[in-house]
Write a structure and sequence with these properties.
about 190 residues; alpha+beta; Aminopeptidase; Alpha-Beta Plaits; nine-stranded mixed sheet; elongated
């Protein structure tokens, strides 16, 4: 069963996030819970929280999905899709028109494709002293560059997910940590 996670279950939410979504700042998670409690949703099995999904508003009428996870023993039974559907309906009820997210590799990308998300960008990290002109013969051209700490994030527009080879792009641009940005427009 999916529902909005009540505050009494926030400790379990934090446990799942710490285990399945490492790198998430708990203070940022707590802020999402405080600022947007109706978009912090969970999947319950026998009254136990076994899945979480949450996010935050970005700009205009957009919302960012920041994290989604189902506890290992309960994966691959359609629960993630149900959880995502509740999150989307809660976001839409608040008046937002689209959801965006940066995706992990492999089955996670296929999960978003299956649930109606479209890849719009590919982002990749390179060294801060990278010279974009050094890769002029690239199959994809850099749409824009975002400075980020001690490195740069190269952003490419994606027209076809299945024809975009992340590994080849990383090799060509001497980059790492490439990921797709997916978007879904809410109807």
């Amino acid at each position: 069963m999916t529902k909005i996670i009540p505050p009494k279950d926030y400790p379990r939410l934090r446990e799942i996030v710490a285990e399945y979504l490492p790198g998430t700042e708990i203070s940022a998670l707590d802020k999402m819970c405080a600022d947007n409690p109706t978009t912090v949703v969970g999947y319950y099995h026998d009254d136990e929280l076994i899945g979480v999904c949450y996010g935050f508003p970005t700009k205009d009428r957009d919302f960012s999905l920041d994290g989604i996870a189902i506890v290992w023993d309960y994966m691959k039974a359609g629960r993630g899709g149900e959880l995502l559907a509740l999150f989307e309906s809660q976001v839409k009820a608040l008046g937002y028109t689209s959801i965006s997210l940066g995706s992990a590799d492999g089955y996670v990308e296929r999960f978003y494709l299956k649930n109606g998300y479209t890849p719009t960008e590919l982002k990749m990290y390179v060294a801060a002293d990278y010279n974009p002109l050094s890769a002029q013969d690239a199959p994809y051209h850099i749409t824009y560059i975002q400075p980020e700490g001690d490195r740069l994030k190269l952003v490419f527009t994606v027209n076809n997910y299945h024809q975009t080879d992340k590994d080849a792009l990383c090799k060509h641009y001497n980059g790492s940590d490439a990921f797709f940005v997916f978007v879904k427009h809410l109807k």
